[in-house]
Amino acid sequence: MRTALALTLILMTSPPHAVQPAAVEDLCAQAGRLRDQARYREAEALLRRALKLAETCGVWNELGVLYKSMGRFDEAEQVYHRAVALAGPDDAVMATLYHNLGGLEHARGRYAAGEPFARRAVAIREKLLGPGHPEVAADLAALAPLLDAQGKRQEAEALMIRALGILERTYGPDHYEVAVTLNNLAALRYAEGNRVEALRLYGRALAIKEKRLGPDHPDVATTLNNMAVLQKAQGDRREAARLYGRALGIFEKSLGPQHPKTVACRANYARLLPR
Predict the structure, then answer these.
(1) What is the pTM of this model?
(2) pLDDT in 10s for each residue of the chain, 275 residues
(3) At what angle do helices 218-233 and 237-255 cross, to 10 degrees?
(4) Are 230 and 195 in contact (CB under 8 A)?
């Protein structure tokens, strides 16, 4: 699944006191950079400071994105709905919130619940920006894994390929969003039984993520875990163990021992080890 989207504007405040938009925007931008570095607690502290200045749709959305990254899914849902309540009639804002709500349901494994949110995001954004816009591609890339997880593989594949084409034309072949889409397309190829192509796509996604995020980022660990699953299926248990071990070390260090991704990777690794 691709990453959640941020809102670029400070929107409709609820408190009666004067808003300080520049200070709020700066705190949100700093928090976003810290989140990208997996420095989640520091990011949360900055967003809480921003909320003391102004309870805005943008700040609540940023907090929802952060809580999803931290595996605090129930809290993410609560703050996303706070953002929705403040969003007003701006269609672009609602598209972003629908995108993020769909991504949250994907992270929870509630794929059918996430599909309507993701479809709304695509429909709104295509109407606003046209079918070839990179933000539309981001929405397509978020919808596709929800469909794939429900067995709607043909539609999911078409959406991923379409999104990948838009993203590569817009950003070039080594952009982070390209890597996220490659990772999802690799998972689809693996499910189809095309393990050679899946491994090639995972390898390309991993190279981009390591270049863009560094070797110890949890998004890197996600692709390492997926590659380990594939290597185990191919019978290469030694390579699978190496990949699981590296992924688990990253998850434990960056996300903590109880994060859902850490727990899942640890379970995968344990099933591989001799009893």
Answers:
(1) 0.85
(2) 545 555 443 333 333 334 458 899 999 999 999 998 889 999 999 999 999 999 999 999 999 999 999 999 999 999 999 999 998 777 899 999 999 999 999 999 999 999 999 999 999 999 999 999 999 999 999 999 999 999 999 999 999 999 999 999 999 999 999 999 999 999 999 999 999 999 999 999 999 999 999 999 999 999 999 999 999 999 999 999 999 999 999 999 999 999 999 999 999 999 988 76
(3) 160
(4) yes
